[in-house]
Amino acid sequence: MLFNSISFLVFLPVVFILYWWSNKKNLQLQNGLLLAASYFFYACWDWRFLFLLLFSTALDYFTGIKMAEARNQNNKKFWFWLSIIINLGFLGVFKYYNFFADSFAEALSGLGIQANFWTLKVILPVGISFYTFHGLSYVIDIYKERIQPEKNVITYSLFVAYFPLLVAGPIERATHLLPQIKKKRVFDYTKAIDGVHQIIWGLFKKVVIADNCALYANDIFDHYESMNSLSLFLGVIYFSFQIYGDFSGYSDIALGTSKLFGIDLLRNFNYPYFSRDIAEFWRRWHISLSSWFRDYLYIPLGGSQGGMGMKIRNTFIIFLVSGFWHGANWTFIIWGALHALYFLPLLITQNNRNNIEIVAKGKSLPTLKELTSMIATFGLTALTWVFFRAKSVAEALAYLKDMFRFNFEGGVQFLEFERYSVELLLLLSLFIGVEWNSREQEHPIKGKGMMLKALIILIGILVLGVFSSPADFIYFQF
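Below the sequence we write its predicted structure tokens.
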């Protein structure tokens, strides 16, 4: 069930009404209803993978309790590693087995040895990377004695399967979400209205910005051999806004939907394209994932406590793992490695925490230095999206080679034969202006005049959107 579909437009009000008016006095009934709705929501993708979600939930619920009851450290470690190995094992089999099998076969072929490995003929379970990381953080926090295991199976199951975040995050922590699930929730009209407005803004980013950019980005990337340099640069810009509108739009819809039920989720995006360096970009892009790797991998590896060599090693590990988390393809690993290389000068010069506050806070316009830094950071980030978007490393390199050939024959080629490309660029300019003006608040439809803003954006969705033909969100494949 897609957030940008008619079925979700029916599903959400029904669950909302049942949640508040049928069970408003009973927390267990509320949680039970949300859990049933979450399983139904997930089963709409492929009911067979619901059993995998149930198994993962039961595994972590059971091992969490066993760790707390363990009489000695060895017994505790046994249950801890049992959960870690099985969870990562399932993720590895479904998401990475074919990648390793094909890569190993190619390596042997390079040595003159022909090998045919059996590969899985199964689609990747939707959301497996996200709900696996939910469970892993829970188990690790119990092992580190940061939290106690949750004994109520419905409460814990809802933490893992809560439908607004189940498919593509944000990646929640037990320390943040579980206390909210366990606490009685009272309907808050102000929060609910803010949630509706955030949903509308998320839909605008997905349906109007991302999906329309996708039409042109796909056309350029699929026919890059026949495009001149200006058109290829344009393709990178389109995809940069496609993936931002798509993923941050999903997160906005998830956060807004959750507010309807009185539950706050972790913010996942904070205007990342206004970042002045790569370190700031990663504090503002996919925040829940980058903070997850920081807390559960970077810090346990030693973080920034050791010498420069250790810091560099840990930085590369984090970015390479982050790239590999996104997909079983060398393109994602190179994408992560490039971000590590971008980050390296900031780390060595100890300038990686220079830009903590939002740019030009309290001001209408940035300084020339801030503007230059933002453009440079966006440009570096956009170049890495070529690897993220390309089907193979060879295709990404060929695209970049043609792009930097500076072949301007035919002028702005793509603008000339695509009817609405100029209009889309104007729309993107307006979008950037709206986000810039709203960068100090959670989303643009907040504060004064929010009803009028919501109405204008709703009209934009109906006029410019492709709501009748909902497109998948990019991060569903991860």
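The chain has a mean pLDDT of 87.
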